[in-house]
């Protein structure tokens, strides 16, 4: 089989989701790094050959290109225990993955990127004006997660790890870099500790 | 089997995705309407019993609740020809569904809601300031779709309809209500016409 190539930016939680999924499954990835702060995913070559949407991550299998972090994680995990066999549980896993991209990532990942990577002084006026809304949206998403974990069986879908946990973990466990206080969310903190104990776990910096 | 209940707001494209998926598959839904303009999905009863995230749609099967439009559509279509059997195609379908929730819906659906339902005069200052960014983001998403359809085989994944088409169609075909000019996107316009010819098709107003 041709090597599986990950076009990525290591610090991105979206890219880390794919690396963590592969690590938990024992799948090797051939990694290609792009510096998004220098616009390396907006070059004509990247747009023509990797992703017309100008974003990483993209998972490449031969000449097939798969953008979108949660879809790429799904491809890696398809047929594995990281995707529940039960029909409702499988859809419920996707429910949390769509929640992650709609309610969580645009708030928590964006604030982390702005505050820890771009730097507050370098933000535009429009970005600065958007901070309070993203702060409130991120805390609302964390509150939904906290309630679900507090009332549940330890993971987002039942009592075992699935892609829902991996995709939500990626930006949640570094939410402090975006100014969120995880100490206010004890069930989330217990869940983070459980993910770190998963066999094969790697850190975002690995 | 218990009836499948759709908690919804008819005008929402997110709810329409689920109705259209069900219609194409010949599945009956028991519909419950909530007026989101009156806050009916933020009441204590709704938050406690239907969705702690305060949003519609939610698909209910017995006592199982499934929020997130794309996940609910996946549950309905699981095992049907609306989800490709090929591993890459299945992940590629999800790729477009995640693109829809991240790049498309927050721009195109939000502008439609603000301009056609809330009304421009009733918008807050922050909403008004966000219009240009959402206009540019929506046109960028439509441009990615246009290129993909122009270079492809008629649908988002290969040459037949899948959930990717249904989920992208829901807000694209009414994008003019958000001030987008679909006349500038001929491949999208041909694809919209093809979706309308699908056996079992229903309109968003049905």
From TrEMBL, chains A, B:
InterPro entries: Glutathione-S-Trfase_C-like, Glutathione-S-Trfase_C_sf, Glutathione_S-Trfase, Glutathione_S-Trfase_N, GST_C, Thioredoxin-like_sf. Residues 2-84 form the GST N-terminal domain. Keywords: Transferase. It holds the Pfam family GST_N. Residues 86-206 form the GST C-terminal domain. GO terms for molecular function: transferase activity. Belongs to the GST superfamily. This is Glutathione S-transferase.
